[in-house]
From TrEMBL:
An annotated GO BP: negative regulation of MAPK cascade
InterPro entries: Calcineurin-like_PHP, Metallo-depent_PP-like, PPP_phosphatase, Ser/Thr-sp_prot-phosphatase
One Pfam family linked to the record: Metallophos
Gene behind this protein: Ppef2
Record field: catalytic activity: O-phospho-L-threonyl-[protein] + H2O = L-threonyl-[protein] + phosphate
Keyword Metal-binding applies: yes
Cofactor: Mn(2+)
The protein, known as: Serine/threonine-protein phosphatase
PANTHER family hit by this protein: SERINE/THREONINE-PROTEIN PHOSPHATASE 5-RELATED (PTHR45668), SERINE_THREONINE-PROTEIN PHOSPHATASE WITH EF-HANDS 2 (PTHR45668:SF2)
Protein origin, superkingdom: Eukaryota
Amino acid sequence: LHARYVLNLLHETRKHLKQLPNISHVSTCYSEEVTVCGDLHGQLDDLFLIFYKNGLPSPSKSYVFNGDFVDRGKQSLEILVILFTFLLIYPKEVHLNRGNHEDHMVNLRYGFRAGLSTVHGKKILRMFQNVF
């Protein structure tokens, strides 16, 4: 994606997240499933495997992602773009909890910052920090 589209996605995600409470209550009944995922750490293949086995987020398929989306793996940016897109499309079915790797200082140490080495990387990184 062009940097402009990534920045637009981040802006819309930030706008959406600012409207949400600090704590989300997710409930289900016996007829519905909630898939809980954690610690993707930039491993896009893991996210694809989860979606392959459980289905994509939809009105009938809820997900809770328990943070640590970035760092360590090489595809943190791609994971965030996918998760933020699903969050905006299905705001009642996709829930993102912030992990300790969604922190600027941790990003400096474990590689997310280094992965944004594009021309617009600094601007995108600042916006990610704002969204986190």
